[in-house]
Write a sequence for this structure.
């Protein structure tokens, strides 16, 4: 999957819509990499079943905030494409039911709710269409969400690469790469862009306990692309920073509150504190669809708790005694004061984030988050 020049050649699509016939999007099916199987097996999951899409989001077969949003949009299409509703109001009700159901899959990444809300808004804006026409309109919208994501990731990469120097080493936590988006990723986008520009960037990937998105996914996709990557166990980050091996930290986000407080994979907050202690810049990279301007601070961000078995029986082995109590939040919130800058598709926001995030989001109303008070459902 690497070209002769070492540049990434089209990696397999993280998620896509596969129409049954070339002349229409409907009927079709959603196809995604089953990320729970990486790095051992590169296998795809194909389905026309909304419950299978819900399960894929819940079980992290598809994961990462932007990819979850795309999957949810396609999930909504799978739900309504078989609708037998003759009248549009009934069809819209079925869409709402599917969206409400998909919204229960995971609570933290705001992109899930943003994408579902966008699908509902588009349907209502075309309420003059028949159910048959609306199915095609919704499939087009879901594909548009995917295509826009690709553009946003590239734009984030272009802004982010300006923060790196040839020969830099960056540390990242979890996976905010192509597997977490349509392609390129958010935190990893500058790495891919730097590679395209012939810069040499070394990446240190935190393993990311308990589900190992860093070692299973980030290391896999960077290695596939020919990027120099080293995996460390999470509790080594302080040591490698102290050794002077890290020039910058780049992470993604699941939700950013209006004041810049940022939810990301559990362990990110600790990395931010370490970066501050070692005077290393700590950058968050995320599209504006990850901003949630309706929340004043990170205290309001809902934090998902995962099943105890992900800790007690990680990857096929018993790793804790039977009956032990387990607490397993999937995300933490890094306070804005630890964040050097937030890079989105419109540019680089610096503190004071209340002002700078607002300026970024105002640049494109289409990317206002679902819960943004200015985003109204007609
Ligand atoms: O539980 P996950 O694997 O979905 O967590 C993903 C992350 O924390 C990512 O860093 C975040 O969603 C940003 S993806 C561009």
């Amino acid at each position: 999957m690497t070209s002769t020049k070492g540049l990434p050649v089209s990696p397999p699509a993280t998620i896509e819509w596969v129409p049954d016939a070339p002349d229409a999007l409907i009927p079709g099916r959603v196809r995604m990499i089953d990320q729970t199987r990486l790095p051992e097996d590169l296998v795809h999951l194909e389905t026309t079943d909304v419950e299978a899409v819900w399960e894929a989001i819940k079980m992290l077969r598809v994961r990462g905030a932007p990819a979850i949003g795309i999957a949810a949009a396609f999930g909504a299409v799978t739900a309504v494409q078989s609708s037998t509703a003759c009248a549009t109001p009934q069809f819209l009700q079925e869409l709402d039911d599917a969206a409400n159901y998909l919204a229960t899959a995971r609570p933290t990444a705001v992109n899930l709710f943003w994408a579902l809300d966008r699908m509902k808004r588009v349907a209502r804006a075309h309420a003059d269409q028949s159910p048959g026409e609306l199915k095609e309109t919704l499939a087009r919208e879901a594909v548009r969400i995917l295509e826009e994501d690709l553009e946003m990731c590239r734009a984030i990469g272009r802004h982010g690469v300006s923060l790196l120097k040839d020969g830099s080493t960056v540390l990242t936590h979890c996976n905010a790469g192509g597997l977490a988006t349509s392609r390129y990723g958010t935190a990893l986008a500058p790495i891919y862009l730097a590679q395209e520009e012939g810069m040499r960037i070394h990446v240190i990937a935190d393993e990311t306990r308990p589900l190992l998105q860093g070692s299973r996914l980030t290391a896999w996709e960077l290695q596939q692309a020919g990027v120099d990557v080293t995996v460390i166990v999470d509790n080594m980050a302080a040591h490698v920073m102290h050794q002077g091996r890290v020039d910058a930290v780049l992470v993604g986000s699941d939700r950013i509150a209006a004041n810049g407080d940022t939810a990301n994979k559990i362990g990110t907050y600790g990395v931010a504190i370490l970066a501050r202690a070692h005077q290393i810049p700590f950058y968050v990279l995320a599209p504006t669809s990850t901003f949630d301007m309706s929340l004043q601070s990170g205290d309001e961000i809902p934090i998902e708790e995962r099943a105890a078995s992900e800790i007690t029986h990680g990857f096929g082995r018993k790793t804790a005694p039977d009956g032990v109590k387990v607490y397993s939040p999937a995300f933490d919130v890094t306070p804005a004061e630890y964040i050097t800058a937030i890079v989105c598709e419109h540019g680089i926001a610096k503190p004071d984030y209340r002002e700078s995030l607002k300026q970024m989001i105002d640049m494109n109303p289409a990317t206002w988050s679902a819960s943004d008070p200015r985003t109204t459902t007609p």
Remarks:
- Residues 156-375 form a domain with the Rossmann fold fold (CATH 3.40.50.10470).
- Residues 1-8 have pLDDT under 50 and may be disordered.
- The chain is about 35% helix and 15% strand.
